Amino acid sequence: MWSFKNFLLIGTGIFVGALASLRAHQIETPADQINDAQLSSFFTQLESGQIDSPNLPKSIVYLGKSEYELAFEALTKESGQEETWFKDYLAGMISVSSGTVKNESLHFILLTPPDQAFLSRYALPTLERMGEHLEKILHHRPKGKITVEIYPDKVSFSKASTLSDETLERSGAIGICKFHRLMILSPQALPLGYRWLDTLAHEYTHLIINEISQARMELWLHEGIARYFDTSYRAQPPLFLTPAGKTQLMEAVEKKELIPFSRMSPSMVYLKNQEEVSLAFAEVAHAISVLVAEKGGEKLFSFLKFSATEGSRKAFQLAYGISPDEFENYWKEKLAQEKWDKTKGAMTDDIRFRQADETAFIGASVQGQVRLGDKMRQKGLWEGALIQYRRALEEEPDNAVILLKAAWTYLALNNLPEAVLSLKKAVEKNPNYGTPYIELAKYVSPKEAISLLLEANAINPFNPQIHKDLADNYAKTGELEKSEEEKVIGVQLTGER
Fold first, then answer.
1. What is the DSSP string of 201-265?
2. pLDDT tens for each residue of 115-126
3. CATH T-level topology, domain 2-16+99-336
4. Whole-structure pTM over 0.85, yes or no?
5. What are the beta bridge partners of residue 173?
6. What does the alpha-carbon distance between residue 458 and residue 456 come to, in Å, rounded to a whole number?
7. What is the CATH number of domain 358-494?
8. Rounded to whole angstroms, how far apart are CA atoms 417 and 425?
């Protein structure tokens, strides 16, 4: 819901957002038959982690394990042939999940298309690190293994997530925690990729919140906690705001355009557009950062535990001594005190489902200078090209596309120090854009290069150059097994030997 970055990370999504006010409860006797009216309570039990409850119909249990054929068969028996949307959903899932490949770790099961099974090399260790990290903070681990699914395209992800194509396009949703499963869209489906590993961590955080709170968490808190923590497995303090996200928050404060927390329910996917969605995520993540900074992680855990019995609004009052509405006003005051530097020309955190011309990332007022610089660079007029790029950078100093062009021009002029500075700034101000990491990795030590290339891989693992360069640098550091593994992945992605 994540994701998250800000790529959009829809964690609890439509379903849990709508059911957040429902209290999970046990059915007195096992259900022999189920109907649409009962599904909400069964799903709430499932989201709450009560997957081993004897009262939960087998079709729901199998759904949580992604065993769709068994779920469909069980549902047919339980429902007495009654037609429900749930049957249609399971039938669709049988189709879209056909032929998936399973890889497992200690706590997770990952299902991918056969040609994307290599993603398990990165996804499973990330999830294990996130699980270990959250267990230390929130003192909770789910029972059994959690199923994670990666869908190859928007059509299959739409079916699995139950989010319409229009909703995906408008909101930029690329991940969801639903039916006690983690589901994301493959980064291959996006031209620039996205922070897919952070998205997995984000959706897992949603699952933990659901289990501890018994699916009784208010939407803005659900998304805020997940967004705040979704980089915590790799960075301390968490990188919950990008430079562009900080700028967006500052401008929203100045223009008095902050989105009220109440308007985020029942799900952020219902906000007007990606700009509103990314602003909402920035708001709630910063709000949670205030809570954690002032009251600590243990207080957050207590709040989640209270929510299971009291509901999130009353639990918030009990844990923090202030109502959610009062805290929202307090948070706005804290946000107004932030003194961040505004970015100029940095990439937004929008999710892009289609290839875009590079002019989409360059302000209209400097496009002429960039075009002239490009023409000069093509003719080998390096000094002239650099003059044009510098002029463009005076207006948009954080623009990754222009910084890359300037770096390549500096290299042509044998000015490596300035090239490296340009690339480092492109990375710093545009942390979710993969190309600057790949380029910078060429001019640093092998150890530093590996770190940069893994960052790029966490954005777009389908770029074969990343794996080729990782193989070369692992070889230089003597990590020959990893070098060979990356070489194999590179060959798989290019078809070359």
1. HHHHHHHHHHHHHTS---HHHHHHHHHHHTTTTT-SS-----HHHHHHHHHHHHTT-PPPGGGG-
2. 999 999 999 999
3. Neutral Protease; domain 2 (1.10.390)
4. yes
5. 8
6. 5
7. 1.25.40.10
8. 12
